[in-house]
């Protein structure tokens, strides 16, 4: 015989995902291809728009994390060296977790804000505030 607690636990496990979970933000897919010794991140601008962040900010992050040089050309980002789509997407996920997604509700409706002397990520959906570990490239706005 199962204990009541076990039954309860099983019942919870069988519940569908909460609605809140369903609306969780999915990291946009990167369209990436290699061209000679460079890597073209073709839908760079679209990804920035989806994340609601400035191109320069995501670019600075990517160059820093990938440890390479690169530039923004139109709606693409071009990196020196060859990187896979998976590598780029892993960095986008890291970026989103650090600079976009609310750690309380998981929504991307957030913005940077300066409190006292530190930069924080403030959620417009639930009001949660989290200090940013790094403030690379954040412009004062
Ligand atoms: Zn939130």
Overview of this structure, please?
The structure is a single chain. The chain is 35% helix and 23% strand. It is α+β, with helices and mostly antiparallel strands. It has one domain: Defensin A-like (2-Layer Sandwich), CATH 3.30.30. The longest helix has 15 residues, at 85-99. The mean pLDDT is 87. Bound molecules: zinc ion. Zinc ion (ZN) binds next to loops.
Number of helices: 5
- Average per-residue pLDDT, rounded, comes to 87
How many β-strand stretches? 7
> Structural class per helix/strand content?
alpha+beta
SSE layout:
Elements lengths: L3 H11 L4 H4 L9 E4 L2 E4 L2 H8 L3 H12 L3 E4 L2 E5 L4 H15 L10 E6 L2 E6 L5 E3 L10
Antiparallel strand pairs: 1-2, 2-4, 3-4, 5-6, 6-7
Helix pairs in contact: 4-5
Bound molecules: zinc ion (ZN).
Zinc ion binds next to loops.
Summarize this structure briefly:
The chain is an alpha+beta fold and 141 residues long.
Keywords summarizing the entry:
141 residues, three-stranded antiparallel β-sheet, four-stranded antiparallel β-sheet, 7 strands, Defensin A-like, binds zinc ion, single chain, alpha+beta, extended
């Amino acid at each position: 015989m199962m204990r009541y607690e076990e039954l309860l636990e099983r019942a919870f496990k069988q519940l569908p995902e909460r609605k809140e979970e369903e609306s969780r933000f999915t990291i946009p897919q990167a369209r990436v291809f290699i061209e000679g010794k460079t890597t073209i991140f073709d839908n760079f601008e679209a990804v920035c728009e989806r994340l609601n962040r400035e191109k320069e900010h995501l670019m600075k992050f990517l160059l820093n994390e990938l440890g390479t040089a690169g530039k923004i050309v139109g709606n693409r980002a071009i990196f020196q060296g060859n990187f896979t789509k998976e590598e780029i997407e892993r960095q986008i996920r890291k970026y989103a977790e650090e600079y976009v997604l609310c750690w309380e509700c998981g929504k991307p409706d957030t913005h940077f804000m300066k409190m006292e002397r530190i930069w924080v990520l403030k959620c417009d959906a639930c009001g949660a505030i989290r200090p940013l570990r790094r403030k690379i490239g954040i412009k004062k706005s």
